[in-house]
Amino acid sequence: xxxxxxxxxxxxxxxxxxxxxxxxxxxxxxxxxxxxxxxxxxxxxxxxxxxxxxxxxxxxxxxxxxxxxxxxxxxxxxxxxxxxxxxxxxxxxxxxxxxxxxxxxxxxxxxxxxxxxxxxxxxxxxxxxxxxxxxxxxxxxxxxxxxxxxxxxx
Length: 154
Hints:
Elements: H1 33-39, H2 47-58, E1 64-69, E2 72-77, E3 80-87, E4 92-96, E5 117-121, H3 129-149
Antiparallel strand pairs: 1-2, 2-3, 3-4, 4-5
């Protein structure tokens, strides 16, 4: 007997997705002046909120680098991204490239991507700042661990 379902078949083709592969972005700098311009743009009201949390990413460690990627500031360890901020009309996203693997006891993370997750901040709504700072720190520690465990590239 055939069961009705979504009509979707889950495929996991071998060799197409490397579960240990790390996204790499070239061009990261210790401090990118384009990011400072982006963060301080007075024409976008929510940029000051994004600025607070991107500064938290910058302060994770001396090995943090940054770059603009897909139109928003991204924080990396060397060339491996761990977090980003982006502003929209009514909210700010604080995103994590490997957020699906982060412990989130406060339940802040949203999204349903295979790897990425984000925290949506809206003006006037309280946020557990300590928990968000914990996610940022955990994302930083996670990418450093991934880099240590990654196979050496040729």
